Structure formats: C-alpha cells, structure tokens
Amino acid sequence: MLTVTSVNVNGLRAAAKKGFVEWLAGTSADVVCLQEVRAEPHQLPDEVRAPDGWHALYAPAEAKGRAGVALLSRREPERTRVGFGSAEFDTSGRYVEIDLPGVTVASLYLPSGEVGTERQDEKIRFMDAFLPYLERLRASAAADGREVLVCGDWNIAHREADLKNWKANRKASGFLPEERAWLGRVFDETGYVDVVRAQHPDQDGPYSWWSYRGRAFDNDAGWRIDYHVATEGLAGRAVKSWVERAATHAERWSDHAPVTAVFDL
C-alpha cells in the first residue's frame, strides 16, 4: 500500500506551533506533500526541517515569505526534481517531485490569482506552461512503466459540487469558467484522474479549504481545491481517500485540511 497526504500548511513555521508536528508524528502516510511552506529550510526548527524517519525535499520561493513546496518521504527517493522546466516559475516554489519505485509523486502549489490583477495573469501563465509539462510527464512515465501522482493546492474548484457557495463565486478566481475548463483539460485530454472525486462522485465536497473569516468552517462553507491527480493506472488502484477535517475550528493548524489517498500497489 502507498498512502499519500497533501496539505497546504499556510506557513510551516506557524503550522508547527499549532499542531503540525504532532499530526506528522501520528500520520500513517508514506509521502506527505506540503504547499505554502513560506520558509527556507534553514529558517525551520530542526524537528520540522528534518523530522525523524523522513527524507525531506524543499523547494522554497525566490521571493521571501511566499509560496514554497516540499515533499516528505519515508523512503529515500530514487530521483528528485525542482520545477518543471519553466524559466519564470522554477524558482517560485511552486513544484517539486520525487521518484519512488514505480511512481512519481509531486507537490504542486498553483498560483491563487485575483481577478483583474497581475496575480491572475501570473496564474494563467502558470497554467499555460504547466499543462504541456503534465502531458510530457505522463508520456515519459508511461515509457518507463511508471505512474504519476500530482498532489497539491490547485486553487481551482472544478465543479459546482466542489464549493459550497458556487453561485456567489462565479466571477471569483478559483471558479472562473476558463480556470474550470483548464482543469477539465487536465482530466479529459491528458489522461489524469481526480482521485477523490472518482471515489466520491455524488457528494458535495469533501471540502478541503475554509476561509478563516466568519463561520465558514463551522458551517462547512468550503472549497475543494486540494487534489490528488493521478494517471489512470494509479487512480484505478486507489482503495480509499478522505479529507482529514479537524473536529473543531480551534484544532485547525491551517486553513486547509490534509487530503489523503491510499493506493494498492
């Protein structure tokens, strides 16, 4: 079995003080994909930077205090890669991947965007550059007899079932028609599968992000923007998947919840 968890930590130093360290000590995951680390490795406490029993790979952003992704693996990776061959984005702390026996696992933090601003333009440029890489990655992995799993904060709710208040967010970044269409291309044209949705086809959510404003968490007024995106062969081996939603608002250590999937390899 291969168990993989993905979570946007909303600042790893802050999350470590709120419960991330305890969560990591108790998880059964073989691989943990982190997004929005917002720190360079030397800025992290030893027990966070290099936790016992884990091989850690960090890809911090060149812009200090922003983005940043990481991968924690119980098994030493056969190969590592930071970035996906983009001059603009390879130093932006958005993508990192490792090769384990038979599978490539990646951690992705797609830009969040904001309508009418440069941030949205950046998001579109990232999407335009990343889709061809996903196609190349699937093809090269298939040629090597490997599967691919890209986990992370994709910052797009694909369907109406993926956010509670979808009617009020039709013109908001994260649910724009062009963003949803792009994610549809990932699934429909490039041969990848939304693992959690495939296992929970008829349910609203399960949501993985809730705003800290108001009572969004208590009312489960969330978004499902954290995905396990797998090649078809690996997706077909998924045996279960779930969102590790905190029991109460006070017990949260991020505005995102960990999303976990188990694969029978």
TrEMBL record:
One of its GO terms (molecular function) is metal ion binding. PROSITE patterns: AP_NUCLEASE_F1_4. It holds the Pfam family Exo_endo_phos. GO terms for biological process: DNA repair. Its EC number is 3.1.11.2. Keywords: Hydrolase, Magnesium, Manganese, Metal-binding. InterPro entries: AP_endonuc_1, Endo/exonu/phosph_ase_sf, Endo/exonuclease/phosphatase, ExoIII-like. The active site is at residues 109, 153, 256. The record marks 155 as: Transition state stabilizer. Residues 6-256 form the Endonuclease/exonuclease/phosphatase domain. CDD domains: Nape_like_AP-endo. Probably binds two magnesium or manganese ions per subunit. The record marks 256 as: Interaction with DNA substrate. Gene3D superfamilies: Endonuclease/exonuclease/phosphatase (3.60.10.10). Its cofactor is Mg(2+); Mn(2+). The record marks 226 as: Important for catalytic activity. Mg(2+) binds at residues 8, 36, 153, 155, 255-256. It is an enzyme of class 3 (hydrolase). PANTHER family: EXODEOXYRIBONUCLEASE III. Belongs to the DNA repair enzymes AP/ExoA family. This is Exodeoxyribonuclease III. The lineage of its organism: Bacteria, Bacillati, Actinomycetota, Actinomycetes, Kitasatosporales. The gene is xth.
